[in-house]
Every structure is written in structure tokens, then in C-alpha cells.
């Protein structure tokens, strides 16, 4: 009897310690985000006050008003939408039929091409950035959204191809054979049978490409030089590199606005993220 | 039938050829020339001397950057695997009611756009005037310290930030792997009188190793290639801090876009490409054998 009670007390103690540790850990994970959130709702003096609290002392929406209407935030937002949607459209348009071909048919050069794509995927695009810069400059696509979409679409295409191929591999061929016996043409079969079946995978891949492009800053800040073509990355970058005391609360408001849509999307597809990220890299 | 697959994949392969393959080839070509700011148009082929400069001239800084990168990768992976494992194990402890809440909150850094997180840390945590770290130092009566100005502390700052950003993925992966360990193994081990650490060592670790391996390899590559953190924290254009911290990727970038040594930068890029290919071939083989 006594031994049982001791065991139970020990168990409760263990859980208390564990809960304490996790609360602390979550706090550490959230501090930078909470700080920015608090600051974004605070008056302009708050950033310099040495007394820090996780609750704005004089709550105000002034920073949000200023970032939305005094800064070209809406223009940056529009540019980011153009870049991400354009990239999703072009990369998927190219990748899906290719992924289908590589998944369904066996042909000479197939294995080699797939291997090559894996190797290319390992190459960090930053390393060829200067070459890309020179090429774009030469053909006059520097500082255009079209040029950047082309670059994004190319690198995302490799990822999307592997991701979609992995999914097509899991759709049984028998379904397609059945429809072929019913006399469906290639085009009909792909449009009516394969694509509807692959819809969830297509959606998830699109969202992953979208998030990647939305979060990309290096190419966006190097290749878009004109402040009217800036994406959110370029705009935020500029905000934080300016005089801090004026723009730091503005920056925190902008950071909240940029992150919110991504957070919403991320938690919606989170369960696919772990498997999706690793699937492309290893399956041969 | 023989043309059809190529017809379907032509747009994708063409796009990849133009945007990914051609620039790599072009980089290889530039690496053999003396292209720099003064020779933007009238450069000429000078053979392998850029490679020789990167590899054999110690003042070129490449070997130092390579060493920093290896140290960075090893320390990061060790910390991530260690912390990720214990946190995931803690999340799976029996009777932890708030598990789902903790899991969701811990995933937040992963969901944030990376550059936003880094810039938030740069100003909100590390900055001498607005940074929380210095506000806390002041509150404790200590003098302010600009963490990003010193090479060693800047390295530690980058390490902390990378851990913050990368741990969620590791936790999620290990947490997923833990679900696949057969629970009855623990019960029979308990009956045999095994303690907690023995169970972890002889059941949990062997049980999840094969599942973690691909994710760990992928994270190793990502860590090796990490650019954003070091660049945005310490080397923004016009805002270089005093820290002399370079990974191989920031080294290549600096030489291309700051000091305009295009030839040298391209040579380094090609060396890294070969290194990464060799490494990925080696790990691919060992993963398959496991």
C-alpha cells in the first residue's frame, strides 16, 4: 500500500517537472515571436523602454496603420503574390506531366535522368547565383518579375517532379488499365482519372512551392533592384536595415502580417510536411 | 511510345536545363577565367589558377571557411539530434496531458518565414539597444555587449538561432519515428527489470535509427548549406559587424557580390559542388545498405 502511494507521488512529481520543462521550452521558442507581437501593438517609445513586458503598455494599432498605408506594404504584398503564384503555376505545369511520365513509363535514360535530378537538387542555387545574375543581365530580365519567376520555377520544378513522381508511384496502374479497356484516350484518362486522384498531392506540392517562394529573400533582394518591384522580403529587409528606432516597431508589425498567412497554411498541411520533405530526397 | 515520355517531360527538362544546368556549366566556365570587376567583359581563360588560389593559398580564406563550416555542421547536428531526441521522448511520456499543445507551440519557429525569424532575432534579441539579451544584461547590472561583433560569440549566436529554427523539424521527425516502436517491447523489458535508460538505449534508439537516418542526412546537407543565418546576422551589405565568420557558402557569395572576385568565387562553387556530390553519393549508398 505504502509502496504504491510512493510510486504515485513519484509519478506526479515526474509529470510536474516534465510540464515545467516543456512550459519553459515553449516560452523560449515563443519569446522572439511574442516580443515582436507585443511591440507591433505598442506605441513608438516602447522599443527603447528598458522595462520589457509581454503586454503592450498602451495598446495601439498605429504601427499596422503606418505599415499598411504609409509604407508601400500593399505593393510588396502584391509583388510577392505575383512571384509565388507565377512560380507555382509554371513549375507545376512543367513538373506534373514529367512526373507522370517518369512514374508510369520505363524508357532509356529514365534512371539516369532521375539520378541527375537528385544531384542537381543537392547543388545550392546560391553558388550559381552570379552566373544567373550575369545571364539575366545580358538578356535584360534582371529586375523583372518574369526573370525571377523563371529562376524559381526551374529550381522548384526539380522538387515538384520528385514529389509528384513519388505520389504517382502509389496510384495503382490497374485503375488506369481499366479505363483504357473502356476505351479512354491518354488525354481523357489523365484528365478524368489520374489528376483527380492526385489532387491532394498536387495541392500539397503547390502549397510547399508557394511557401518556399514566399519565404525566399536572397534572390528576391539581389535580382529585384528597383523599390517598386520589391517583394515582401525586399521591403522587410529594407525596413530593418534603416534607422532602427523609427522602423523597428513598423518592422515587427510587418513581420506579423507576413507570417500570419504562412502560419495558417503551414499548420493546415503540417502532417504532410515531414513525409513530403524527406520523401523526395531518398527514394530512388 | 518511345517518344512519348520525353514529350511529356520536355517542358520540365528544358526549364531545368536552362535555369539549373546551364548556370552550373557557366559557373564552371567562369571559374577558369580571370573575370572580376575590372575584367567584366574582356576576361580571358587562365586555367586552374583560381582553384590553386582557393586550395593552396591560406590567405584566400577558403580553407578556414571550410573548417568553420565543418565545425558548424558537426556541432549543429550533434545538438539537434541530442535535444530533438530528448524533447521528443519527453513529449511521449505517459500521462502528459498537454502534449498536443506543447507540440503545436514548439512547431512555431519552423512555420515562420526564415528570413523574418532571423531579422527578428537580429534586432529583437541580439541588437545592443532593442535586443532582449542586452535588456536583460542591463537589468542584471551588467554592461551591454554586442554579441554579433565578435567571431566566437557571433558563431554561438548563429548556433542558437539555427537550433531554434531547425529543432522543430527534428522533434517532429523523431516524434513520428517513436510512434513506430513496438510498445510491447517496453512492457517485456520492464518485466525483465530494465530501467528507463536501459530501455532507451536498447529499444528506443535501435528502433528509430533507420527511420531517422534519411532525415538526419537531409538536415546535415541543409546545415552545411546554411547561408541565411550567418549572412543576415553578420554580413548584410553596409552593415557588416566586426565578426569574421564565414561558411563556405557565404565565402563564395562574398567573393562574387562583395569583393567581385568572380573567378575565385566560381572556382569555390565548383569545388563545393563536387564535395556535395561525393558526400551525397556516399550517404545514398550507406542509407541503402542499412
From TrEMBL, chain A:
Location, primary (coarse class): membrane
Keyword Transmembrane helix among UniProt keywords: yes
An example Gene Ontology molecular-function term: ABC-type maltose transporter activity
Entry-linked InterPro entries: BP-dep_ABC_trans_perm, MetI-like, MetI-like_sf
Any single GO BP term: maltodextrin transmembrane transport
One cellular-component annotation, GO: plasma membrane
UniProt cross-references to PROSITE patterns, sorted A to Z: ABC_TM1
SUPFAM superfamilies, sorted: MetI-like
Keyword Transport among UniProt keywords: yes
Membrane topology: Multi-pass membrane protein
Transmembrane segments: 12-35, 81-102, 114-136, 148-168, 189-214, 248-267
Keyword terms: Cell membrane, Membrane, Sugar transport, Transmembrane, Transmembrane helix, Transport
Subcellular location per the Swiss-Prot or TrEMBL entry: Cell membrane
Residues covered by the ABC transmembrane type-1 domain: 77-269
Pfam families: BPD_transp_1
Record family assignment: Belongs to the binding-protein-dependent transport system permease family. MalFG subfamily.
PANTHER family: MALTOSE TRANSPORT SYSTEM PERMEASE-RELATED, MALTOSE_MALTODEXTRIN TRANSPORT SYSTEM PERMEASE PROTEIN MALG
The protein, known as: Sugar ABC transporter permease
Organism field: Candidatus Allofournierella merdipullorum
Amino acid at each position: 500500500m505504502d509502496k504504491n502511494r510512493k510510486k504515485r507521488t513519484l509519478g506526479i512529481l515526474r509529470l510536474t517537472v516534465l510540464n515545467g520543462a516543456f512550459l519553459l521550452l515553449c516560452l523560449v521558442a515563443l519569446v522572439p515571436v511574442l516580443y515582436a507581437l507585443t511591440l507591433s501593438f505598442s506605441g513608438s517609445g516602447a522599443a527603447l523602454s528598458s522595462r520589457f513586458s509581454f503586454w503592450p503598455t498602451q495598446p495601439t494599432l498605429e504601427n499596422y496603420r503606418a505599415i499598411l498605408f504609409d509604407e508601400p506594404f500593399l505593393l510588396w504584398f502584391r509583388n510577392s503574390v505575383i512571384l509565388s503564384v507565377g512560380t507555382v503555376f509554371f513549375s507545376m505545369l512543367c513538373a506534373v506531366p514529367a512526373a507522370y511520365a517518369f512514374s508510369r513509363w520505363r524508357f532509356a535514360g529514365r534512371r539516369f535522368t532521375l539520378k541527375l535530378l537528385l544531384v542537381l537538387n543537392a547543388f545550392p542555387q546560391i553558388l550559381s547565383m552570379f552566373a544567373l545574375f550575369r545571364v539575366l543581365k545580358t538578356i535584360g530580365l534582371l529586375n523583372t518579375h518574369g526573370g525571377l519567376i523563371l529562376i524559381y520555377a526551374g529550381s522548384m520544378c526539380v522538387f515538384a517532379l520528385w514529389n509528384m513522381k513519388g505520389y504517382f508511384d502509389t496510384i495503382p496502374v490497374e485503375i488506369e488499365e481499366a479505363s483504357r479497356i473502356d476505351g479512354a484516350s491518354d488525354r481523357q484518362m489523365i484528365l478524368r482519372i489520374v489528376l483527380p486522384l492526385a489532387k491532394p498531392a498536387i495541392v500539397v506540392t503547390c502549397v510547399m512551392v508557394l511557401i518556399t517562394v514566399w519565404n525566399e529573400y536572397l534572390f528576391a533582394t539581389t535580382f529585384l533592384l528597383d523599390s517598386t518591384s520589391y517583394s515582401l522580403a525586399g521591403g522587410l529587409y529594407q525596413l530593418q536595415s534603416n534607422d532602427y528606432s523609427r522602423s523597428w516597431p513598423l518592422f515587427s508589425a510587418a513581420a506579423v502580417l507576413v507570417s500570419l498567412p504562412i502560419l495558417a497554411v503551414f499548420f493546415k498541411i503540417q502532417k504532410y510536411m515531414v513525409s513530403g520533405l524527406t520523401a523526395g530526397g531518398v527514394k530512388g | 511510345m518511345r517518344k512519348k515520355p520525353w514529350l511529356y517531360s520536355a517542358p520540365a527538362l528544358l526549364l531545368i536545363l536552362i535555369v539549373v544546368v546551364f548556370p552550373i556549366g557557366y559557373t564552371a566556365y567562369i571559374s577558369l577565367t580571370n573575370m572580376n570587376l575590372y575584367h567584366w567583359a574582356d576576361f580571358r581563360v587562365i586555367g586552374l589558377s583560381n582553384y590553386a588560389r582557393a586550395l593552396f593559398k591560406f590567405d584566400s580564406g577558403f580553407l578556414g571557411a571550410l573548417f568553420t563550416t565543418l565545425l558548424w555542421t558537426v556541432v549543429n547536428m550533434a545538438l539537434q539530434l541530442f535535444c530533438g531526441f530528448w524533447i521528443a521522448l519527453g513529449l511521449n511520456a505517459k500521462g502528459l496531458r498537454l502534449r498536443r499543445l506543447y507540440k503545436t507551440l514548439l512547431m512555431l519557429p519552423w512555420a515562420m518565414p526564415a528570413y523574418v525569424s532571423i531579422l527578428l532575432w537580429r534586432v529583437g534579441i541580439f541588437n545592443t539597444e532593442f535586443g532582449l539579451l542586452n535588456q536583460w544584461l542591463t537589468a542584471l547590472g551588467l554592461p551591454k555587449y554586442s554579441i554579433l561583433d565578435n567571431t566566437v560569440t557571433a558563431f554561438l549566436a548563429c548556433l542558437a538561432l539555427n537550433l531554434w529554427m531547425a529543432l522543430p523539424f527534428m522533434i517532429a521527425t523523431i516524434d513520428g519515428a517513436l510512434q513506430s516502436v513496438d510498445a510491447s517491447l517496453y512492457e517485456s523489458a520492464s518485466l525483465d527489470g530494465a530501467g528507463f535508460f536501459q530501455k532507451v538505449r536498447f529499444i528506443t534508439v535501435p528502433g528509430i535509427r533507420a527511420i531517422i537516418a534519411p532525415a538526419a542526412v537531409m538536415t546535415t546537407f541543409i546545415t552545411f548549406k546554411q547561408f541565411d543565418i550567418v549572412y543576415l546576422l553578420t554580413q548584410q551589405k553596409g552593415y557588416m559587424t566586426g565578426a569574421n565568420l564565414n561558411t563556405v557558402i557565404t565565402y563564395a557569395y562574398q567573393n562574387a557580390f562583395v569583393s567581385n572576385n568572380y573567378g575565385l568565387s566560381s572556382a569555390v562553387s565548383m569545388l563545393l559542388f563536387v564535395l556535395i556530390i561525393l558526400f551525397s553519393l556516399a550517404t545514398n549508398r550507406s542509407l541503402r545498405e542499412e
